[in-house]
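Quick log. Single chain, no ligands specified.
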Amino acid sequence: MYTPKFKHVMLATAALTSSMFASSNAANAQDFKVNWKGAPEIESADGNFKMKVRGRMFVDWGTLSDSNGTFADKTEVRQARIGVEGLMAGDVKYKFEVDWGEGGTEIKDAYIEWALDPVSVMAGQFKVPVSFEEMSSTRHTLFIERAGFTDAFKFGRQVGLTANVDKNDFTFIGGVYQGEFNNGNDKQGRTYAARATYAQRFDGGLVHIGGSAYKRENDENVEPTIRYSHRPHLHLSPNKYIDTTALDATSDTFVGGELVTIVGPLNVQGEWGWMTVDAPTGGTSSTFQGGYASVSYFLTGETRGYKKGMIDQAQVINPVFQGGAGAWQLAARYDVVDLNDADSGVMGGKQTSYQFGVNWHLNNFVRIQANYVKADIDGGVNDGEKIDAFGVRFQTHW
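-> predicted structure:
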């Protein structure tokens, strides 16, 4: 449906594209070349200006049943993104992307980056730097849904200013963030966050270690409460089986660690983190936790990509369109989200999930995922509940 918000998004996209071409003309870059990187990338003759149309589409189907008789069988277009990214004046990068998935319109990334070596500075809306799983794109994650704690603890994008360091497989991202594109409140709480990683490479693989921390102030313009909850690794689930309900909170603080190993076709990774709710004076603070351990293996010999402290695109050896079988990957994950804190009297429930997946990469840009999830709930209003869920995703990105 055509809405004023939609109109503003399209005008912003058009303005950004026009600015790119205008700048190119000003730089006498009317001579250009076109490269193919999943989509056409237009580059000026001197290499100082680039622009690429980017996007993705995820179409999901899922079914769920629980021991209380709840049943769901649904579909959705989970993500439908389109945008542009590129380079202006040699060392200034930009990215702008809109998502029409899940029945709405939402600005995702919208930033400019002054890219020096080895330091860069970013301003705009982008992910707050926390967690290996959260920072890695859903284009490349092992399962249809990310690890449970990233959703339960409400990680995501905010408007901010950040400094990035990337040198000799060491990365650091740190900055300050406040509000988001759709947050029009007169007062907005700030978030202070940082993440650091290091990868030790060896013949045939690497070991990655990292950690992140942030402090998120509660929005001063609303009642000072916060709430954590989570679905059983199926976005189509009609219920969130663990839920703290509203908690008095002036802020919350997260710390977490991560360990990843990639050796040829084998990948083993895990994370664990703690979220502390900072209660108002005289109140009782609560601490919750969550994490996962996963293992995956490419039966066809590929290796998971890795770049700048995050998972990157795996390169398919024998794509289907060239007559090959594509890349076949098996994955398993043990996942825990614990929203119980007996000391503070909060019993939001603990969800323990066992997940199994098969990923078929037809080529570098098309993937089909199938996941089975079995989850058990301990504590909270859904204590003793058992959930079985199955999901399929058809994915393309460029």
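The chain has one domain: 55-397.
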